[in-house]
Amino acid sequence: MIRTRIAPSPTGKDLHIGNLYTALINWVFAKKNKGKFIVRIEDTDRQRLILGAEKQILKTLKDFGLEADEDPEKGGPFAPYRQSERINLYQKYAHQLVEKGFAYYCTCSKKRLEKLRKEQQEKKQIPRYDGHCRNLNLSRSYLENKKISYVIRLKVPKDKKIVVNDLIRGQIVFKSNDLDDQILLKSDGFPTYHLAVVIDDYFMQISHVIRAEEWLSSTPKHILLYQAFDWPLPIFCHLPILRNPDRSKLSKRKNPVWASCYLKKGFLPQAVLNYLALMGWSHPKQKEIFDLKEFTDVFELKDIQVVGPAFDLVKLEWLNGEWLRKTNNSKLKNQVIEYYQKYHNKNLNHNLVKRIIPLVKERMKKLSDFWFYSQFFFEEPNVDTSIIKNIPYLKDIYQSLLTIKDWKAKKIGQSMQKLVKKLGVKTGDFFMNLRVIITGKEISPPLNESMEVLGKKKCLERVKKIIKN
Ligand code: GLU
Questions:
Q1: Ligand 1: does its nearest atom lie under 6 Å from the Cβ of 197?
Q2: 344 C-alpha vs ligand 1 centroid, how far in Å?
Q3: Residue nearest to atom 5 of ligand 1 (CA)
Q4: Could you identify the atom of ligand 1 that is nearest to the CA of residue 22?
Q5: Cα–Cα distance between 169 and 241 in angstroms, integer?
Q6: Cα–Cα distance between 88 and 95 in angstroms, integer?
Q7: What is the pLDDT of residue 415?
Q8: How far, in Å, from the CA of 242 to the mean position of ligand 1?
């Protein structure tokens, strides 16, 4: 049985876009193999905990269509899925490790550790624990009777090679002497990530630990724990980290980092997933546009490339535009209406949106572009009269429009062309002026069609308003 998981920490506002990528790969790999995808919330870092983050993370996954089979809200056979509710389990196994000789109690004070760190820094050494308590064989009953505060540390064996077999990176050998005696259980009784992740992945029967590259250096510590417990190893796979186009680590300054921001900005969830799928992986037929189902069908985990792929907003916008054009008009209409309701608190007239969609669809890259192109259908435009005030033929336009009986784009166009000829003015200038009068902007959807949708009355009013000015 294939079981994959993501284990986000609720220490930010939402799911990081990099975590969404990890979620996508875990979800697809599980679905492809008729397995299960699990979300476990790693909330043991109580200082960095952000209220509401867990809810938001689960919601975002749902919004992107990557719902878990088991998670803290819906539960499952290995509940609870929130680490803060599993503390007893971690404590039990941490003490067990001490009993078996794979870990030890450490009572070093903060002060001592700080002093140690300073000294090491001065000597330009990598800061690490010096093993002061490693061979003291402090006993739990002694410490607890005397109420001495302690942590539990991993007793990293000396001179050992630890081999990480990574599904996409192959064999990576670590030297145990380079590893710190990692804290496993903190003095407040909470586990550190390293202890909790191993215990949970084991008890939740995770078959494949697929996570970001940044955790690769932690994996040898985890392997030591698996060995100490005498538990079989899961399969490890460390995904490349998404980067900015200039290769720097994805940062807030260059790209939004929270996954839900992309939905707020008007990207379609399917397009974002499609784009993420292309990070470090390519379609066997070099296709760029495909949906989640197709991705699931053709995806092979081993084909992921390990070089950090560039997350390029411009490319994502392009892809999103392609997705919008692929969507049929009636569905796109609903998406636009829903988007403006949800993110901009606007209730757009359904019928009007329906008529506008065919005019703007080709130009839109994001759902949020809809308003940019079509605001003038819903609101009176603010016309910058300095662009148009010296038009001597405003009244002629008004008269010509007034006489059009059958208010259709074609008729409007013919009538305006006729007028241009009669006036002997430049076509380009004429229509630019008319465009600004009607739409308030120099860029707009096709003018004749827009005027048809806007209606004769409104068009006449807009011309009249300029005449009066
Ligand atoms: N809590 C870690 C994170 O925030 C989980 C790492 C892992 O998947 O092991 O990404």
A1: yes
A2: 33
A3: 7
A4: 8
A5: 14
A6: 11
A7: 98
A8: 15
Q: Whose CA is nearest to atom 10 of ligand 1?
A: 8
Which residue carries 């008004």 as its tokens?
398
Reduced DSSP (H G I as helix, E B as strand, rest coil) percent helix, strand, coil of the chain, to 5 = 50, 10, 40
Mutate to test the pocket of ligand 1, among 5, 9, 17, 199 (most ligand atoms within 8 A of CB): 9
Of 78, 63, 59, 102, whose CA–CA distance to 5 is shortest?
A: 78
Intra-chain end-to-end CA distance of the chain, in Å = 74
Burial of residue 418 (CB within 10 Å: 0-12, 13-18, 19+) is exposed
Cα–Cα–Cα angle for 179, 184, 185, rounded to 5 degrees? 155
By DSSP bridging, strand 183-185 and strand 151-154 are: antiparallel
Active site residues: 252
Measured from the Cα of 211, ligand 1's closest atom is: 8
Fill in the amino acid letter for 381. P
**Total-model pTM:** 0.93
Mean pLDDT by 10 residues, the chain (469 residues): 97 95 98 98 94 97 98 98 98 98 98 97 95 97 97 98 98 98 97 98 98 97 98 98 86 82 97 97 97 98 92 96 97 98 97 98 97 97 82 94 97 97 94 96 95 98 92
Distance (angstroms) between ligand 1 centre and the Cα of 288 equals 29
CB atoms within 10 A of CB 377: 23
Nearest-CA neighbor of 98 among 128, 129, 142? 142
CB count, 10 Å around CB of 275? Answer: 24
The helix-helix angle for 456-468 and 427-439 (nearest 10°) equals: 100
CA distances from 246 to 238, 312, 315, 442 (A): 22, 10, 14, 34
* Spacing, Cα 382 to ligand 1 middle (Å): 50
| Cα distances (angstroms) measured from residue 93 to each of 99, 196, 200, 419 | 10, 10, 11, 87
Residue 199 CA: distances (Å) to CA of 34, 115, 258: 24, 32, 29
